[in-house]
Amino acid sequence: MQLPEGKTGLLAGAALAATAAGAAAYVYTNKLTCEQGVVVFLDGSKIGIHLGKCESIDELKGQVEEKLHIEDCRLFVEQAEGRPELSSSAELAAALASPALRVSGVLLLLATADSQPLSSTAQQAPKLLAIPAGPKPLPLVGSFLLYKQGGQGHPAYNFAANVFAPEKRAVWGDTVLIVLPHSGGPDGEVLKDVQPGLLDYAVATCDPEVVAELLARQDDFPKLWGRRKAERSLQAVAGNGLFTSSTLDKDWQVAHGLLPRAFNQIRIKNYFGVLLDKTRSFVAAWAQMPQGGTIEGVSDWLTCMTADAVVKAAMGMDMGNVEAKAAGQPLHKFIDAFRFCLKSALGRATVESEFGSLAAWNPFFDGAAALAKKKASALQASHDVVSELLERTRKGEIGGPQSVLSAMLNDVSPSTGDYVRLQNIYGQVMNLMIAGHETTAATLAWALYYISTHPEVEAKALAEISAVLGERCEPRADDVPKLVYLEACFREALRLHPAVGTVTRDVYADTTLKGTWFVRKGQRVDINNVALQRREDQWGGSFGDPNAYNPERFMPGAAEASGRHPNAFNPWGFGVRACIGSQFALWEGKLFLCMVLRCFKFRVPEGFARPLPSTADGGAAPTPHHLALRIWKRKESGAVLESISSQVAAAKAGAAAPAAAQKGAAPAAAQHGAAPAAATAAAEASHGTPLLILYGSNTGTCEELASSLAGQAAAAGFAAKTASLDSVLATPAGPAGGALPEAGALLVISSTYNGTPPDNAAEFARWLPKQADGSLSKVTFGVFGVGNSQWAQTYQAFPTQVALGLARAGATQVMEMRCSDVDSNDWMEAFDEWQREVLRGLLVTFGVNPPEAYVAAVNSGAAAGEAKARLQLRLLEASEPGQALSVETVIAQLRAAKPDGYHLLEVLENRELQGPGASRSTRHVQLALPAGEAGQYSAGDHLEVMGNNDKALVAAALKRLGLTGAERVEWRANIEGGSGSARSLGGSGGLSLILSVSDALTWLVDLAAVPSKRTVSLLAEGCPCPPEAAALRQLATEEGYKEKVSGQRLTLVELLGQFQSLSVSLDQLANLLPRMGPRYYSISSSPLARPGTCSISVGLVAFTTPSGRPHRGAASATINATPVGGKLLGSVRKLSSSFRLPQDPSTPVIMIGPGTGVAPMMGFLQERAALAAGGASLGPAHLFFGCRSSAEDFIYRAELEGYVKSGVLAGLHVAFSREPGASKVYVQDLILQQGPALWGLFEAGAHVYVCGDARRMAPDVRNAFKEMAKSCGGRNAAAAESWMGGLLEAKRYLEDVWAG
Ligand SMILES: Cc1cc2nc3c(=O)[nH]c(=O)nc-3n(C[C@H](O)[C@H](O)[C@H](O)COP(=O)(O)OP(=O)(O)OC[C@H]3O[C@@H](n4cnc5c(N)ncnc54)[C@H](O)[C@@H]3O)c2cc1C
Ligand code: HEM
Ligand SMILES: Cc1cc2nc3c(=O)[nH]c(=O)nc-3n(C[C@H](O)[C@H](O)[C@H](O)COP(=O)(O)O)c2cc1C
C-alpha cells in the first residue's frame, strides 16, 4: 500500500516509453493554488506527479520535460470540440481561467515523438474531464444541507433522496462533485502533501461501475480514516480499530492479518453453539410475553441479542444482556457506557438529552463540564470492561483458542509479523463491538418489520423452516446453509436499509475514475449505499418496485436473471476493507429468524406507520424508528418452546445466573473453549477426540492437504483443528501451557525448501530441538512429508527433522512417517493412503468408533478422493444470463477479494539473450511492478509467474469435450482458503465468476500434466466399454503406466482420445487434472537499479514428447511470447531464506550460476554496482558461469564483462560444455581449478551462492568445494564434510536450486 520510493523514477521511465509510443499524458492545474501536475496513462494504471506553480507556458513545458525526461514537449488544450495546440502564455492563462476547470481542471499534454501535429494514438487518447458538478453548493455550508434536509431520518437517506433520486440523477448523473467545507482533518498524518482546499471537494456516487473500479484499484483508492471531524470523534471513543483506521495505518495492517481469521467460514460454524444458546434465551424471554402483547423497543432487545452473541462468540464472555433484560435487571455496564460514548462521538449527547431541559436552562449548572465528566466516566467504564476481558483471557478464565483476544495477545499477524499493540487492543475490541452488533441488530429489526408486514413472505419463510427442520425443534449447524429464503429476507432488508449508509474511499494520488474523470490526491469518494441499492435499473424490472421489500431478488439465480451489476449490492463494503463479520452476521441472522419465526407470529401495532430509518433509538446503524411488534406464540410451537425452555433451564442450572455473568464470572460451560451446545449435539454421533493438524507450507500444498485431512478426520468423529506449525507456539495447546496437545493427537504435514523449513514453520524448527528429552512424552503424533526428489540432498529434510525431533523428545508415533514425492505423477495416492491409515491408527489407539457414515464411505472408497479440493466449474446453459468476463476482470476481482493474489505485470522489455544461431532461447524480461510490490523485493527473491496452456492443448481438450470454447462456465473461485488455493487460482466456494470455457481451460488447469495412476484407474472404473475398460486397467498397472502413460508424457486429453467410449464433462475433466500452478523465476535485478521494475531471465522449455506432442512450457513459452506492453500474471515472492548479499559489502562473494542460474547473480551484481556508485567499498566477487558455447548461450556476456571492467566483479569464470574444438568444462571443474584463490576468500569470510540445477549441478558443486577443502585446506574427508556443514549452518553457503 505504501508508495514505493522512486515512483517518480518509474513514472519518468514509463512516461518516456508511453509518450514515445504516442500515448498521452495530461497536465492539470489546481484552480485554488494554480499548481500543476502531470498524469501519465500507463496501461491499467494512471499516476500523477507534482509540478509546482508555473507562471508561463515555457516554464510549464520546462518542468514537464524535466520531470518526464522528454525533450520536445507540446501542449494541447482539452476541449469538448477538439484539442488545439497551446502555444502562448496568454492561451495558457485563458485555458486556466476556463470555467470548465473546477478543482480538477485539465489541460491536455501530448508529447509526440514525431513532428506530426498530433499522433493518431494520442488523438484517440481518452478525454480527461472534471467530475460533474452536483447540486450547487451554498456559501459556507457547501453541500452539507443535502444530508440534513429531506425528513428521511438519516443523512445517507436524505442525501440519496436529494441527489440520487431517479429524476435528480437524470440531471446530475450517478457521480457528482460535492463540497463539504471544513471537513478536513490533520491530513499530514494520514496522507502527506495534500493540496490545501482539496479536501473540501468529495465525489459522491451511486454508480456500481465506480464501486467496481474502486474495488479493482484498491491501492489507488484506500480507505483513510480520521480526516473528517466525525471520524476523529469516533476514533477518540472507539480507538484505532479495524473499522475506524486507515489502510495505511500499521494498526490496521497488523490487525487485518489476525482478526478476520476469527470470523472466516470455518470459524463461524464453530460459533453455532454459542449463537444457538443465546437465541434460545431470547426466544425463552419473548415466550413470556402475553399473547397479542406489544414488545416495545424491539431494537433494544435485538441489540442485547447481537451484542451478547458477538462478545460471547469472539471473546468468550457472556454479558448476559438478554437474560438481564428478560429479568428486568440492568444491562451489562458495557452496553450503557459504550452507547453513551457512541452517542457523544456522533454529536448526539447534549446537556438537554442527558440532564433534561431544566438543566439546559439552569444558569447555575455547568452543563458542558457535566457532559464531559459523563463522557469521561463512560469511556473509563468501557476501558475497564476491556481491561477485565483481557485480564481474564490472560489468566485463561475465558477465551480459549477461538477468542480474538487470545489471538491478539498471543499471535503475531501473519501479514506483518507484529503483535497487535497492547494499547490498540481496546480499539479493536470497541470496533468489533460497534461493527459487530449494531449492524446486525438493525438489519434484524428491519427484517422482522418487513416479514411481519408481508404475510406472503412470512408464509414462504415458514414453509422453508418446516421443510429444513422437519420434526426437529431447532436447527442444526448444517441446516443453516439450507435456509436460503431466510437469507434472502435478511439480505433484502440490508438492501433497503444498509446498516452502513455510506462507504468511503480516498484518492491516494492524482488519478482518474472511469478513465475520464480526474480526481485529486486527498479527495474523498463517498459511495451512497442507499441510492446504489435502490436503483431502478439494477433492482427494478421483473422484481418490481426497487423500494419495495421482495426477498425473491436474492434467491439463487435471481442476480443473474436480473442481470444486475455485481457491485450494485454493497452493504458489507468491499475489498480489503470489506466487513469481516458478514458470514457471522448471516449465520446469526438466519438462525435467529428461523427460531423466532418458528415460535412466534408478529404484527406491527395498529396504526403503526412505516418507520423512518433512524439512529435516534441509540447506536450507529439506522434502525426502524421506535419499532414495536405485537407477538403471538404460534399454535404449533408448544413442543418447540417447551424444548427451548428446558434447554435454557438446563443451561442456567449448569451456569451462574446472568447477574454473575455481568460481574464477569461466566461459567466454564458457557465459554466457547468448552463444548457448546451444538458441539454436544454433534458429539452424540462422534467421539470428539481432539486432533490437531499442523502444517508447514509456503505455496499452500500442505495447507490444503491439512484442511482435507481435517475434513476427513471430522467425518471420522475427531474434533479436528488445523494451524500452521509456528502459530501453535503462540497459542499453547497443552494443559500446562505446553505448545503441543497432550489430549488426543497431533498430525504434522510439511514441505521443505532447499533443506530449510517452510516460512510458517521456521519458529517451530528452532523450538523443537530445545525441548528436553522425554518432555513431550504425553504427545501422540504422526508426520507426513511432501517433497520433491529432485532436491536429492535435502529430500524431505524438514518433515524428517520434525518426526525425529518429536520422537526424541519422547512423543509417541502413531505410525511411521510417510511421504509423497511431488515429482511423481501419482503423489496424491500416497497422501490418500496415509490419510486413511493414520485415521484408522488413531481410532484404534484411542479405542473409539467412527460414525457409521464414515465407515460406509471408507468401505465404498468414497473418502479417498477427498484430498483434492474440487475446482468448481459449472457449464452455463445458453439461456442463463451473464457475460463471460475478460481475464483482466477476473484477475482484478480475485485480487480485490484476495489482495495477496496475482497482479497483471506489464512487460517493459523482452529480449533474446542467446546468440543468433542458438537452437534454444533465453529471454531477459523486464516487468513493471505494482506499487505494493515494487518497493518490497530484494535481490535474490523470486517472481511467481502463472503460466497458461497453449492453444493446441486447449483446442484438443475442447474437441474431446465437444465444445467450441465460447460457451460460458461459472467458476466458484476460492478466496477464503489458504494461500495454496490463492496461489493456484483455483479452489471452491467464495467468489462466483463467469469465464469462457476456453479461458477456463487456458488458465485454471494444467492440461499438459500426465494423469496419475489413480486417475487412470478411475477412468477404467467408469468406462462403459468392457474391452476399453480392460485396456485402461492395464494402463493403471505399474508397468503399463510407466511404459504407456508417464513414459510417453501422455496428457489426459491424449489418453481420453484413445478411449472413445469414455464420456467426460468439463467439470469432470477439470477435476481429473491438477490446477495450473505458478512457476518461480529468480529475479535477475536489484531494486536499487531500476526502481518499480524487476527482471527475470527465462529459459524456454520446448521439446517433443515421446508421444509426438510438441510441448511448450506453460510459463516459459507464455513469457517468451509476451511482447512489450503485454501482461503477465505474477507476484513477487519474498524469500524467507538468507539468499541475500551479505550485509557488509566488503565481504567476499563467490557465485555459481550456470545457465539461467545466473539470474539472481545478475541481481546481486546490479546491487553491488549501485552500492559502489553510492560510495560503498566492495569486497571481491567471483562468478562461475556455465553454458554450452561462447557463440550460443553465453548470456549477459556484455553486462558481465562490463562488471569485470568496473571492478564490481573480480573474476568471471566461464565453463563451456560444447565449445567447438575444446573439451567439456563444467563450473565444478573451474572451481577446482581456482581452488587456492577461492580458499583464501573462504578464509576471509566469503559467502557462497549457488543457483540452478538441483539434481546434478548443486551436488557436484558442493563436492568440488569439499575437494577444495581437502586439497587447499588440508582436511580429510570427514573434516571437509564438517567444514561444509559449518558453512551451511552459518548460512555462508546458500543454495537456491531447482529441478529442471
Ligand atoms: C526456485 C526456482 C527458481 C527458478 N528460477 C528460474 C529462472 O531464473 N529461470 C528459468 O528459466 N527457470 C527458473 N526456474 C524454473 C521455472 O520455474 C520453470 O520450472 C520452468 O520455466 C519450466 O516451466 P514451464 O511452465 O515453462 O514448463 P512446464 O510446462 O512446467 O514444463 C516443464 C516440465 O517439462 C519437463 N521437461 C523439460 N524439458 C524436457 C525434455 N526435454 N523432455 C521431457 N521433459 C522435459 C520438466 O521436467 C518439467 O516437468 C526456477 C524454478 C524454481 C523452483
Ligand atoms: C448486517 C451486519 C453487518 C453489516 C451490514 C456490516 C457492514 C460493514 C461494512 C459496510 C463495512 C465496511 C466499512 C467501510 O468500508 O468503511 C464493515 C466493516 C467491518 N465490519 Fe461489518 N457489518 C456487519 C456485521 C459485522 C459483524 C457481525 C462484525 C464482527 C463480528 C463486523 C465487523 C466488521 C469489522 C471489524 C469491519 C472493519 C474491517 C476492516 O476495515 O478491516 N461486522 N462492516
Ligand atoms: C524453491 C524450492 C525448493 C525446494 N526444496 C526442496 C527440498 O529441499 N527438499 C524437498 O524434499 N522438496 C523441496 N521442494 C519441493 C517442495 O517441498 C514441494 O514443491 C512441496 O509440494 C511444496 O509444498 P507447499 O506448497 O506446502 O510449500 C522445493 C520446492 C521449491 C519450489
TrEMBL record:
Pfam families linked to this entry: FAD_binding_1, Flavodoxin_1, NAD_binding_1, p450
Which residue stretches, if any, does this entry annotate as coiled coil? none
Catalytic activity entry: 2 oxidized [cytochrome P450] + NADPH = 2 reduced [cytochrome P450] + NADP(+) + H(+)
Source taxon at top rank = Eukaryota
- Keyword field: FAD, Flavoprotein, FMN, NADP, Oxidoreductase, Transport
Q: Which family does it belong to?
A: In the N-terminal section; belongs to the cytochrome P450 family.
InterPro entries listed in its UniProt record: CysJ-like_FAD-binding, Cyt_P450, Cyt_P450_CS, Cyt_P450_sf, FAD-bd_FR_type, Flavdoxin-like, Flavodoxin/NO_synth, Flavoprot_Pyr_Nucl_cyt_Rdtase
Enzyme Commission number(s): 1.6.2.4
Indicate what this protein is called per its UniProt record: NADPH--hemoprotein reductase
Name what cofactor the protein needs.
FMN; FAD
Q: Where is the Flavodoxin-like domain?
A: 691-839
Q: Where is the FAD-binding FR-type domain positioned along the sequence?
A: 900-1142
